[in-house]
Specification:
Helix content is 27%, strand content 27%. The chain is an alpha/beta fold. It has a 9-stranded mixed beta sheet with strand order 2-1-10-9-11-12-13-14-15. The longest helix is centred in the first third of the chain and has 15 residues, at 27-41. The radius of gyration is 22 Å and the shape is globular. It starts with 11 loop residues before the first strand and ends in a 19-residue tail after the last strand. Residues 388-462 form the AMP-binding enzyme C-terminal domain. Belongs to the ATP-dependent AMP-binding enzyme family. This is AMP-binding protein. It holds the Pfam family AMP-binding.
Length: 470
Amino acid sequence: MLPALHDPQDRPALRFGVGDASLALTYPQLAGAAGALASALHGRRRVAVHATPTLHTAVGITAALLAGVTAVPLNPKLGERELGHVLADAAPELVLAAPGVELPGPLASVPRHDVDLAASAPVPGDEPPAGEPALVIYTSGTTGPPKGAVLSRGAVASNLDALADAWAWTGEDHLVHALPLFHVHGLVLGVIGPLRRGGSLHHIGMLDARTLSEAGASMVFGVPTQYHRLADQLEADPAAGEAIGRARLLVSGSAALTAVDHARLHRATGLAVRERYGLTETLILTAARAEDEPEPGAVGRPLRGTEVRLAPLAGEQADGLGSVEVRGPGLFDGYLNRPDATAAARTPDGWFVTGDIGRWTESGALALVGRSATDLIKSGGYKIGAGEIENALLEHSGVAEVAVIGVPDDDLGERIVAFVVPAGPPPAERDLVDHVARLLAPHKRPREVRFTDALPRNDMGKVVKARLPR
């Protein structure tokens, strides 16, 4: 899983923080600290990790992988009810944490083991079987209690290797990001990814223009909210944009990056952002390759070994849209303790149903229009993707942010409603409606525009449309 730790070279591995407050480990130091913790974990079945964005979390996850123990990263912002559910479901034998950190109440019943960065012991020599579970990562729980997706060691390794192929990712790359460490993007891609390649990671805490420009990144990972704020900063700091532009790859994921922000970042840095697409249950499915010209609004082609199909949408006209279904080596083994939910997520012929709606572009890339539960609007006999309307509205100079939903309508079935955060004084509603009607088919225009100060978001910065008033 992590070959660079079995013959560690004296080179940087991990750094968290900036300036005098940062903590860092070389590969020999990481091998020693993770080896010592792996020895302490030997014989355990499953351990929780209090997944703060710290070096201690990265060492804890690394040690669990070396020991062949399943790690359960815990979002440190979980409420007591959510955390209690996860602990009852996963039943970890230990919780790994940074020394001195106060753990939330429900963790009091779990034995604690502090991560010692200065410890040293040999790395275990035996590699556990690829079919053994590496991680149990819990979903966000937007449609019920969080479910634990069981990801095998083989799934993680094969997915990271396919991404290395797509992005020409090597041990010479220096990855910089500021993502949380309790999910696939920040943890699997952002920590295990560089360690599997033998490269380095610098977690800078916040994707700030000045800090990023001084980090010397060859690769940057971020989410659209971070890139949107970065683009704002770079408009006033062209020198930072020039420095960031020396990276070879900016990668965005977890939600769609707007065409407007694509253009702003390209102007500021000279780099075209690559998007990728995946879920907790599937790891990464598609990605814009390093050698390809990215298409704003598309998330690239399927990774090596991964199959993606668009299942027909029954009923109304769908304008080329389909339900995204996938299969491949990166798929999860199932939901922990939930065989019913596991079975419900797969088709009879073994494809995983993502719940997303997409279409193929002319180049063979996948473009997503949203989730079937919240972003597929059935209006006037058509099935309409909310994402397409959102991107159109974001091209209007008076729109800073937007979320589009369908609300019940006696005549249309659902009518299209746009929640708009204005960029300055709110523009006229008619102006926004006509703007969309000029860019898209008339049946896709909003029937109503509601102005708001902010959109509801989760910890990842994704808009939570379920919280919008209907």
